[in-house]
């Protein structure tokens, strides 16, 4: 033996058939080798294998484990014999295992005789080639790598055929480095080798290297094969290398390969996908032969470019050219119809589908269903769906998505339920569509059920499904559930983050949205362009200007400022934050502006009161021929309202009317509001009654206008309309209605409205409660006003002022002082309105001590210099007879107006006589202040109270003759009251008949009181009828007339009158009197049980009165029931 060695074979499943017996001897020898029974020389083993090579197939039918050659000097020859035996196997197609371990470099140990015999007898290079082909076919990468190493170890030259086989094998397993190594080792690279290496780079998407190899091949004057051209074009198509594609096209024209169908198809596809459809069409036009594949490539190119018209035109040409369409053809044509509602043309295509028998194809049928559904032809979609012999999930999904696109979301959910009942399990797309439908109709319960089904069905929740699920929960307002889905998703992408931010923003959770944005940045996830407007919207609504600027900086860095939606959001954010300069800067630098851009800027200017700029931008918008929408017009209307620009408002209204925008509810309501605020009630009413749908805003605006115009009956018409149209009044509507109801002086209408307010849970609204208190006070129903005040859970300073003003207007100064003291004890600081009401109460009570206290509070609060408070202080001191103090305050006033002078003059007229009053009146003129009607009202009222008829008459003439002031009803009432108080009833009658204006209730009450004093029953009855006609619920008129009848012993008339008074609920107020003792005001009410203190005080005052000669008049006591 020349050497010792071990050869290990694992031969499994050896057959026992007769045709295998010839190999049994050899198998026993091999087993002996395995057990080291004998150790033949390598030459003996070679001869043995060669003798049995024809039947060696049985040996390779098993699994050949790795061989280990330790001392075989001719190991390579052994393997060669094995290779030859395997390659000449008579059993084609059978997969056999080859040696899996390199033998190492043993070539030096091979004898020349044996090597020569092997090379010449077995042609091992051919054996290697056959084996490599077998490795490639069987994808045996490890054996191929082994053989390559074997070649290298034995310095075997790699020919072109071997190199191409090795490159193909390595490339198919992604071993590009080894493929490149083989390419560099090929002795003389032929076209086949270049083809293999280029195909390898194409397979592994190494486009740049592939193109470099292509041009290197050209440099070596090798003509690229058809396969090389196709691979290179495929790479150019994939990576959009249009320039290189054109070069290859040019070379193909030179070599004549451009007329080849495969090359032409590839060129058309390359040009189309690189965006050059014209060049693709040019290639198509020069092709001498066009089969259905060529047509399909061009059709697909135009379909991808959404050139539906050309696709349909090509299909028509194809049909006229008698080219039978295929499946791809119809799919391209169907894609062309997507979004086009050409039902007639589509039916022709459908007939062709039926003609060529493609209606049974599930892909085409599903495309048909999807197309019909998306175009809104749901009945046709149903027909195709029902005609399907084998419906699948795709068919159902197409039908469901079509209904969703048509807005029939409920039906889409029903189809999903039916789909499940018929045994089809929804896939991810099914659930996505269902979630979209639930979100559109806010079907929260159905959405939760579907979410549970999704989990139970085991469908993988991918990004798309999770995104639609988030959208659904967001639209249903279930942000907690959306957050749970979001947090449980392993790796949310930027779309899911954007949906969550949008959901928080849309629901007003701006802080949560910004916090999520910060988390997104921490995770280094960049928002997409659609997310930034929501982020900016949060900044705008929170007024976070600095955060908005940070976001703006990020947009600048990412070069997203050119996006119109982003710019609009920036303008809106800067506008709402009051940075109009920055907003205008963004607007000015926009290359493209839409109507939203203009709206955002105009609305921002309007919001911050810059109405001139808003209208200027609106005019510029019109000059640039940008069509304004209802939002633009709305902002412009508000600016016209703010400026009081009635002419511009009318011009704008005309434009709105011409463009048919007046019917928009919000715009119509603001037009009504504009005309109301500009005191054009008729125009406001015309717009209001033309509105197709009145809402609470327009009704409230109209009610406000009618209240301003004192058109109380029209308010009732508006309220009737609101009841008829089921329009729920808001606090503004009720406030206007209450003001209208209070004008009659009857609290019954106010009570009805009060009941409605309680039913609508608006009774706790502070503004509305203040209105209720005010209207009850105007109707002299202070008990109900005080009830509203007491039940209010939270009272503002305005509420306290309203109730105090009500009591002051109803001459209940005692209650005003009590409330003023209670307000201070509850920790509220009075304002000037509080002081005005309290000072008026002090005037009615004559409580000088309280005036001094309030004066001190006024000084402490630095309000003495305030013109309104100062004038009231002057008037209060003057009425109480403290003229020196009134004059001191008057002198300290920074601005002495006509009210200040009138108060001082009235005080002097009442307490110091006409001479001083006249003196100050002329001094007032010298100061350049012209007296007004109220000035003489104060003077005439003072003379009336003092009974100075002559002085009052002189001033009345002075007012008319010297100051040319036309007397009002208040002046005439002062004169009549002056005559009546002086006992000059006849003079009062004469003066009455000489009045150029109609008397009011005050006039008739003064005359009625005087008639009772003088027992003039007839004239008294006349005055009573006139007074009750103007104000039917005047209880004072009934009481005075009753006393007049009682004085004349006309008791039948008294009882009749009292019955009528009770029938209409004209209850009289109980008589009250107040007295101030030691700075404390004490009130006495008729019929009230006196306290011990007040009883003692009352006895004291009765004793004082009797000592001064007072005798009670009991003749006027009415014989009627005592009213409680």
Automatic annotation (TrEMBL):
| Similarity comment: family membership | Belongs to the PPR family. PCMP-E subfamily.
Q: What is this protein called?
A: Pentatricopeptide repeat-containing protein
| Gene Ontology CC terms | mitochondrion
Keyword Repeat part of the UniProt annotation: yes
Arranged from A to Z, the UniProt key words for this protein are: Repeat
One GO biological process term: RNA modification
Instruction: Give start and end residues of every PPR repeat.
Output: 291-325, 361-391, 392-426, 493-527, 563-593, 594-628, 695-729, 796-830, 866-896, 897-931, 968-998
* Classification via InterPro entries: E_motif, PPR_At4g14850-like_plant, PPR_rpt, TPR-like_helical_dom_sf
> What molecular function terms (GO) are annotated for this protein?
RNA binding
């Amino acid at each position: 033996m020349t050497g010792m060695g071990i050869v290990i074979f694992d031969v499994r499943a050896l057959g026992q058939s007769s045709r295998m017996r010839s190999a049994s001897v050899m198998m026993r020898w091999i087993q002996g080798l395995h057990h080291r029974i004998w150790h033949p020389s390598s030459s003996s083993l070679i001869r043995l294998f060669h003798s049995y090579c024809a039947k060696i197939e049985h040996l390779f039918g098993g699994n050949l484990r790795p061989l280990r050659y330790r001392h075989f000097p001719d190991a390579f020859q052994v393997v060669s014999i094995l290779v030859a035996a395997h390659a000449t196997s008579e059993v084609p197609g059978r997969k056999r295992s080859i040696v899996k371990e390199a033998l190492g470099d043993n070539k030096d140990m091979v004898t020349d005789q044996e090597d020569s015999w092997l090379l010449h007898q077995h042609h091992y290079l051919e054996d290697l080639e056959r084996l490599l082909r077998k490795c490639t076919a069987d994808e045996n990468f490890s054996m191929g790598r082994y053989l390559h190493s074997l070649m290298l170890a034995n310095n075997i030259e790699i020919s072109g055929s071997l190199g191409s086989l090795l490159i193909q094998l390595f490339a198919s397993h992604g071993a590009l480095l080894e493929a490149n190594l083989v390419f560099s080792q090929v002795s003389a690279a032929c076209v086949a080798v270049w083809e293999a290496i280029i195909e390898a780079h194409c397979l592994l998407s190494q486009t740049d290297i592939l193109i470099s190899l292509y041009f290197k091949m050209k440099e070596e004057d090798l003509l690229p094969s058809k396969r090389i051209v196709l691979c290179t074009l495929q790479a150019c198509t994939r990576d959009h290398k249009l320039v290189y594609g054109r070069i290859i096209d040019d070379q193909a024209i030179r070599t004549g390969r451009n007329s080849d169908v495969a090359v032409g198809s590839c060129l058309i596809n390359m040009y189309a996908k690189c965006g050059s459809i014209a060049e693709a069409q040019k290639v198509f036009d020069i092709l001498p032969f066009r089969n259905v594949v060529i047509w399909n490539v061009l059709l697909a190119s135009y379909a991808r470019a959404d050139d539906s018209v050309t696709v349909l035109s090509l299909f028509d040409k194809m049909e006229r050219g008698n080219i039978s369409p295929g499946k791809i053809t119809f799919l391209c044509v169907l894609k062309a119809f997507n979004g086009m509602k050409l039902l007639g043309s589509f039916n022709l295509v459908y007939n062709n589908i039926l003609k060529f028998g493609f209606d049974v194809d599930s892909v085409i049928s599903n495309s048909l269903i999807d197309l019909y559904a998306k175009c809104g032809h749901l009945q046709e979609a149903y027909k195709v769906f029902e005609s399907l012999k084998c419906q699948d999930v795709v068919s159902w999904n197409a039908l469901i998505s079509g209904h969703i696109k048509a807005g029939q979301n409920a039906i889409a959910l029903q189809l999903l339920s039916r789909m499940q009942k018929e045994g089809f399990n929804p896939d991810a797309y099914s659930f996505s569509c269902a979630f979209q439908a639930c979100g559109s109709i806010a079907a929260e319960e159905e959405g939760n059920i579907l979410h549970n089904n999704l989990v139970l069905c085991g469908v993988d929740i991918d990004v798309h499904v999770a995104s639609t699920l988030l959208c659904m929960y967001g639209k249903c307002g279930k942000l907690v559930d959306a957050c749970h889905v979001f947090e449980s998703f392993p790796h949310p992408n930027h779309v899911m983050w954007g949906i969550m931010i949008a959901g928080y923003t849309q629901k007003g959770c701006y802080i949560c949205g910004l916090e999520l944005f910060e988390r997104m940045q921490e995770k280094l996830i960049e928002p997409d362009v659609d997310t930034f407007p929501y982020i900016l919207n949060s900044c705008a609504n929170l007024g976070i200007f600095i955060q908005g600027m940070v976001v703006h900086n990020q947009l600048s860095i990412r070069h997203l400022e050119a996006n119109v939606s982003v710019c609009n959001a920036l303008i809106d954010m800067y506008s709402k934050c009051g940075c109009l300069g920055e907003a205008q800067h963004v607007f000015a630098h926009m290359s493209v502006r839409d109507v939203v851009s203009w709206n955002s800027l105009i609305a921002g200017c309007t919001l911050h009161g810059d109405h001139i700029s808003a209208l200027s931008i609106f005019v510029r918008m019109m000059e640039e021929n940008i069509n304004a929408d209802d939002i633009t017009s709305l902002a412009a209307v508000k600016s016209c309202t703010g400026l009081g620009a009635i002419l511009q408002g009318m011009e704008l209204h005309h434009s709105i009317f011409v463009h048919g925008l007046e019917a928009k509810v919000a715009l119509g309501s603001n037009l009504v509001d504009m005309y109301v605020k500009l005191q054009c009630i008729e125009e406001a009413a015309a717009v209001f009654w033309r509105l197709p749908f009145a809402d609470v805003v327009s009704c409230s605006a109209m009610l406000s206008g009618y209240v301003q115009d004192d058109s109380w009956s029209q308010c009732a018409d508006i309220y009737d309309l609101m009841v008829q149209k089921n329009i729920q009044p808001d606090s503004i509507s009720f406030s206007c209605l209450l003001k209208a109801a209070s004008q009659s002086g009857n609290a019954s209408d106010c009570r009805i409205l009060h009941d409605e307010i309680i039913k609508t849970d608006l009774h706790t609204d502070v503004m509305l409660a203040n209105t209720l208190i005010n209207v009850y006070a105007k109707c002299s129903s202070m008990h109900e006003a005080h009830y509203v005040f007491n039940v209010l859970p939270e009272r503002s300073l305005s509420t306290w002022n309203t109730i105090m003003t009500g009591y002051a207007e109803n001459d209940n100064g005692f209650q005003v002082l009590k409330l003023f003291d209670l307000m201070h004890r509850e920790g509220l600081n009075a304002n000037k309105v509080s002081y005005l009401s309290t000072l008026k109460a002090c005037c009615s009570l004559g409580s000088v001590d309280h005036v001094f206290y309030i004066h001190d509070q006024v000084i402490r609060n630095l309000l003495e210099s305030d013109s309104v408070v100062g004038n009231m202080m002057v008037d209060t001191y003057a009425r109480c007879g403290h003229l020196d103090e009134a004059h001191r305050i008057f002198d300290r006033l920074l601005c002495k107006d006509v009210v200040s002078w009138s108060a001082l003059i009235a005080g002097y007229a009442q307490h110091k006589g006409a001479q001083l009053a006249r003196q100050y009146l002329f001094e007032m003129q010298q100061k350049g202040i012209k007296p007004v009607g109220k000035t003489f009202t104060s003077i005439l009222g003072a003379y009336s109270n003092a009974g100075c008829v002559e002085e009052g008459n002189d001033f009345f003439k002075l007012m008319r003759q010297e100051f040319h002031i036309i007397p009002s009803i208040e002046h005439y009432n002062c004169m009549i009251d002056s005559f009546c108080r002086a006992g000059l009833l006849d003079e009062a009658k004469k003066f009455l008949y000489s009045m150029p204006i109609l008397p009011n209730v005050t006039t008739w009450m003064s005359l009625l009181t005087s008639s009772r004093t003088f027992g003039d029953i007839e004239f008294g009855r006349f005055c009573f009828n006139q007074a009750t006609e103007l104000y039917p619920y005047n209880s004072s008129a009934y009481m005075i007339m009753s006393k007049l009848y009682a004085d004349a012993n006309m008791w039948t008339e008294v009882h009749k009158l009292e019955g009528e008074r009770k029938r209409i609920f004209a209850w009289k107020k109980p008589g009250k009197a107040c007295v101030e003792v030691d700075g404390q005001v004490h009130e006495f009410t008729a019929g009230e049980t006196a306290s011990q203190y007040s009883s003692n005080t009352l006895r004291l005052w009765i004793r004082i009165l009797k000592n001064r000669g007072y005798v009670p008049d009991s003749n006027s006591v009415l014989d009627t029931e005592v009213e409680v």
